[in-house]
Structures are given as structure tokens and as C-alpha cells.
Amino acid sequence: MLGPVTTGRPTRARSHRRPRGRILLVLLALVATVALLGVAFVVLPMLRPAGPRPLFQLPVACGETWQLGTYPGHDDYDVDLFPTEGEAWGRPVLASYGGTVTVAGINGSLGGRTPENPDGPRGRGGGYWVKIDHGGKWETQYLHLLEPPLVTVGQRVAQGDQIGRLGSTGNSGAPHLHYEQRRGWDKVETYFDGAPSGITTDDREYTVKRASKNCPTVS
Q1: Total-model pTM
Q2: Cβ atoms of 196 and 94 closer than 8 Å
């Protein structure tokens, strides 16, 4: 009696491996999930309402009177600060309120304006600058500093701590401090010691004088 007839070819074992397409889909799903979580981590805090406005003070020494101003083309809510007495170059720039430094470096390019060469070439942007996160979606920015900031990213500062010196780096025509207060993504009118500065739009030239109450606290 004849046995089973074969072709002489070996029988292939059935593969137990998952199809590559299914593995690729799983990997893509994991990547998409991680990306969504990352976006949520960044975006969701910004969607929460801002906290109460901190009691910001002028970013200059206690008791000094400074001129706050704006001009057409300066951008809404931007404030330029000039001392009303004494030399402007190198004056201390102070934190308006306590917080954490998030930027301390160069915005744009520095240019070549210095106390020794005040009419040197302009740079671009804000030059040496600092940004501080005060919590509750509130930030302040300090631009055109004379030299590298005196603080570093991640450093905690208290109100009145010196963060730099006044200069004219970046796109600046004379030594001054360009200053901004921000709530979330929005720039807002600056308040000092609870009072509005009155600088809201840049449709006209406007100046006002204010005395600094950025004074050491008595413990």
C-alpha cells in the first residue's frame, strides 16, 4: 500500500510574529499620545484665568523720580523709563516684584552704544534683557540693559533685587529702560504701587513722572 505522496518541499512553520503594520500603528498611537500630553501640559495652564495683579513697583531705586513715556510706533503698553536727575548709564535696574527668572540673555543684537561711545551703531531688538515670571500668569520684561544680566535663568529674585544695569543695547537711541508687564499672552497697562501708569496706546507721545516705592521691606 502506497504511503502519502509528498512534493519533496519542506513544510513552512506558521509564523507567530505580529504583522509589522500593526506594530507601526501602535508606535504611531503612542507618539501621538505623548505629543497630545505635551501640548496639554503647555496649553492648559495658559487657559486658566490669571491670578490677581501683583503689587508691582517701579524697577528703579527707592525714592527716585523717573519719567515714563511712549511715542508713536512704540507699541501699545510699552514703557520707556528715563531718570529725571543724574547720569542714566549704569543705573541699577530692579525686579518689580518677586518671581523666577525665565530669560536672561540677548534679544536680537547688541549694537555698539556704550558710555564711552553713546552714538555708536544701533543693534536690533532688545539687546541684553531679562524676563521674570511672577506666578498667576504675570510676567515683566526689562530690555536694553548695559551688560549681561546679573541674574540667571531659574534664579529666584525678590522685589527690589538688582537684575542689571541701565544701558542702550539693541535698537535703542539713548540709555533707558524699556519695560513691559504681561498677563498670559497679552501685554497690559503697567501699574506701579497699585496705580495705572496711563500708558495704553502708542497713537501719541505721552510722558508722566512717578516716584519709586521699590523700597527694602522692614522685617
Answers
A1: 0.79
A2: no
